Amino acid sequence: MTAVAAWLVTSTIAFPAPLSMQTGAVTSQPIGHYEFCKTNRSECGPTTRRVAPAHLTGAGWNAVRDINISVNRAITPMTDKDLVGQDELWAYPDGAGDCEDFVLLKRKKLMERGFSAADLLITVVRKPDGEGHAVLTVRTSEGDFILDNLENDVKLWSDTPYRYLKRQASFHAGRWVSIENGDTMMVSAVGK
Prior knowledge:
There is one protein chain. The chain has six helices and nine strands. The model is unreliable at 1-15 and 185-192 (pLDDT under 50). The protein has a single domain (24-191), classed as C8orf32 fold (Roll). The chain is an alpha+beta fold. A hairpin with a 2-residue loop joins strand 5 (132-140) and strand 6 (143-148). The strands form two sheets. It has a seven-stranded antiparallel sheet. Strands 2-3 form a two-stranded parallel sheet.
């Protein structure tokens, strides 16, 4: 390996990961979310637009952590096929649900606690095995944090093993935007 190539590999891993996702253009809405929005219109419209994400207090962080853990414990993971006999149905869980259902309930509970919909964004990722997955991104002034039904700890998005594809737009809960630096996180997470 040449000295220049060694420097490039080392410098790629040495750069700190970005605290927040870089979003791009409006992209396709997942079909399950589209169907959810048809029956839950009030949850899929324009949001209050702020220039910067909210700053969370200690009480806010406690609420985020508590809701992530309590929903993870209260809901039994089960596929839509097993629950309702169809491949994809986004709905509030009643005792059991898949990843999107966990996300919807966590988002709802956080909004009931006063969090803005603009800072609670359903996010589509790929797990290391290539399987699709949904998590909830909480935008904060300290970075984007992930609430995940596969993990009780709330983590900075760059500290997860996922490849980030798209998420709800902060300006409109029924619109989705691409995540421009999502592939970088997968490489960075593997390189750690």
